[in-house]
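Discussion board: Methods & Data

I've been asked by a reviewer to show the raw model output for two of the constructs in my manuscript, not just the figures. I'm not sure how much to include, so I'm pasting the format here to get opinions. Each protein appears as its amino acid sequence followed by a line of discrete structure tokens. Is this the kind of thing reviewers expect to see in a supplement, or should I convert it first? Here is construct A:
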Amino acid sequence: MTTSSLPFCVGLTGGIGCGKSTVADAFAHHGIDIIDADLMAREVVKPGTPGLDALIDRFGKGILNPEGALDRQALRTQIFADPKAREQLESILHPLIWTAMRAAHAEVKSPYCIMAIPLLIESGNLNRVNRILVVDCPPELQIQRAMQRDHASREHIEAVLAAQASRKQRLAAADDVLDNSGSHQDLQTKISQLHQQYLQSAALHA
């Protein structure tokens, strides 16, 4: 199945603390199918999957918990500060994740779908979606929200931000920018407007 024959797809992305999950949930309430990259990343490394077997072959059984499932903290410890190990991890997981997402895309029942991909800009896979929606807010608000949500230190959140694409890079790649610095009602109004826009785009795409 070619990309053009698949339902119209909006790639949803944004930095940590910008509110991507809130936005995805709002589109879901409009009846739109959501394909979540983080969820797919967990599915492809469940016990017994080729993905987990490949990780064990590369990183050893020390990445497993006592139940035989992936211990994500143990894996993060192994790849932390080791760019080569991180690249090897990505080379194993990314093709599996994209294959799973493409399969989910082929099963979409709504007029269009949202692919929620936190690292869409960083992955360089911009051509896998029809349109890019970036959720944006001022950096200081982003940091405060992430600290509160994750119960993390400012230093930790700033380190995560430093490892992600910059705000400038995300905005440069965006077809649409959703400002999430205002009220909840303001955000919902903007999402409703985008929903109507995407319905029109999907009709032309069909």
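Construct B, same format:
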Amino acid sequence: MNTLDYLLFGVYPYIAFAVFLLGSLIRFDRDQYTWKSDSSQMLKMGQLRWGSNLFHIGVLFLFFGHTVGMLTPHFVYEHFISAGDKQLMAMVSGGFAGLLGFVGVTILLHRRLTEPRIRINSKTSDIVLLLLLWLQLVLGLATVPLSGQHLDGSMMMKLAGWAQAIVTFQPGAVALLADAGFIFKAHMFLGMTIFFIFPFTRLVHVWSGFASVTYLTRPYQVVRARRLNVPAGQNQPRRPGAGV
């Protein structure tokens, strides 16, 4: 283990996660009017429909797949699926979702760079974010053939072990990445960097997307007239001089 690996994969994960949480909280508290996706739908709809749908379907599948796959201990699933079979399933499903996300973000990036009205209304952070997401999906797809060289699931187990050690504050996490190739490490570092810049971009609207699930359990809003037995539309104060 060298110093750079220790800084990037032993220290940086905690810095990125702290900025992700605290930055999101501070932005919500101080700048709620910027807490939005800044949709450009009104400027041009055509490519947005395909690009946005493909991107969100692919990325949401990848996010939850990575979260469950990396953070679920091996003993939970070892009785009904082997590490090798789990890796093969991840390669197939993740590769397909990655392709969907890649096509989607490519459409969105092309649209934002080539459509004059959208380009002039874009922030620098919008373009940088799309470029980082595009590169992250490219790196993720590049790991698929590399994973095919370890069909026994050994590399997947090491990467999952690193993630679980990081979130549980266990020592020795960085040592698990000693045999990981550059593509794997670049993919992991860029993923953490996206979390790091999360509070400073339009990505904050993701929080609202998850929070909207609470509407399913929220009670109905009850609207009552101020005077008993008077329809709400007729319950208005009388203007001076108005007729009976």
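Answer (T.O., handling editor elsewhere):
This is acceptable in a supplement if you add a one-line summary per construct. For B, something like: The domain at 41-72+80-195 is CATH 1.20.950.20 (Fumarate Reductase Cytochrome B subunit).
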